[in-house]
Amino acid sequence: MPAYNAAKTLIRTFRDIPPGFDRHVVLVDDASRDNTLEVAESLPLTVRSHPRNRGYGGNQKTCYDAALQAGAEIVVLLHPDHQYDPKSIPDLVQPLVEGRADAVFGSRMLGGRFLQGGMPLWKFFANVALTAVANIALKTYLTEFHSGFRAYSRRYLESVNYHRNSDGFVFDTEIIVQGLHKGLKIHEVPIETRYFDEASQIQFGPSVNYGFQILGTLAAYAAHLRGWRRDPRFA
């Protein structure tokens, strides 16, 4: 659970994790400005904290490091802001347990309920457009590249050099491109989301920058494949 200013939603999120899946939860507090750290320490979690804010991607790096060091074979990424429904965790994990995939992504676009949770229209259209561009560039057929609710196998995380990735939001796209480059299999399952005041959301201005960073990542990968410029992320 990569946490930043999640004090108001952390307990609700943790309580919604299905029984049996809540025994090995790692939360990394990214120098929150509220009392997220204190709330986390009141719950049966393994808690780590950054002395200074490292960003969303930097937080994930610490989360994955901690999970792998603890011996995890499957790692679920769950935001503690209660936007993603933790009750879908078994659906994310099952394809990994059965060996049908190396990573499983929750998709808001599957199941036809992508707007019912309150996703802003501008975010919906941006999501669809960027996903279409990524699918064309990578020759894939994923319905969504931008979900923050995912499950990775140990094999996936150990096959990609995620420490080379950005500390920002584009980390989520970089780790997909890395996995595809390694020939790893990604599966998708439908999920439901909620949009409300306490749920963390990237705002319009940063979203535009995020979009350009995604395009930059795709361009860098294309250049790497063609031998024009070696990129250590994809080595």
Question: Could you give a short description of this structure?
Answer:
The chain has 235 residues and is an alpha/beta fold. The protein contains 8 helices and 7 strands; from the N terminus they run βαβαβαβαβαβααβα.
CATH topology: Spore Coat Polysaccharide Biosynthesis Protein SpsA, Chain A
What amount of the residues lies in strands? 5-15%
* Class of secondary structure makeup: alpha/beta
Give the overall form: globular
Give the mean pLDDT.
92
Assembly state of the chains shown: single chain
**Portion of residues in helices?**
25-40%
Strand tally, please? 7
The first-level CATH class is given as Alpha Beta
Overall structural domain count = 1
Q: Segments where pLDDT lies below 50 for 5+ residues?
A: none
Query: How are strands sequenced across the largest beta sheet?
Result: 4-6-5-7
Biggest sheet architecture? 4 strands, mixed
| Count of DSSP-assigned helices | 8
